[in-house]
Amino acid sequence: MKLLVVEDDPDLRRQLVTSLSGRGYTVEETGDGEEALYLGREFPYDLAIVDLGLPSLSGVDVIRRWRAEDKEFPILILTARGDWQDKVEGLEAGADDYLVKPFHMEELAARINALLRRAAGHAKPKLSFGPLTIDTVGRVVHRNGEVVSLTSFEYRTFEYLVLNAGKTISKTELTEHLYHQDYDRDSNVLEVFVRRLRQKLDPDQDLQPITTVRGLGYRFDLPVDSDSK
Asked: Do 136 and 109 reside in the same domain of the chain?
């Protein structure tokens, strides 16, 4: 999952990027409102974290303009202000949730996880697809109750496909949501990783959870168990 962090305090921004990168997210950053507006317009993000007090363009204005241009990724606002009206203004501009500074990184991570699940139509952190279960909080996958050993990249690939189940995801889109903008995008490398992921998830080839749609990309096809939605 690719996140955009918009925070003008360089120390806090660095902490956010370090913490979220350590949790397996691909994170891009800026401390400027105008640049944030541009990035949100031009690049695909799964979620944005936006401070309300920004130079050049306020966080509220950035959010309002994104929403006016039909940018639908979830937005979590950060504010050090105690006035409830600021929070209301941010939410009315189109934000989905808020945190007041100072906050614990664990709470931020939990809010992010909840927003990403909600955007994908899931309320619970653990999703089951027959013998496969993914825990989006613990970031672990089980098959028939046994942990499937995945690399960080393999987990992120699987999570993205699961949260977009039923949709065909192009190799370009998958790469854009897993890597930084300047990553050397080699589709052959992506194919190797997806093949390895298939082998780990489906060693007996009886599930076939990931379908290759020739010329278009990949699609996760297993239906979610009704009690894990």
From this structure: no
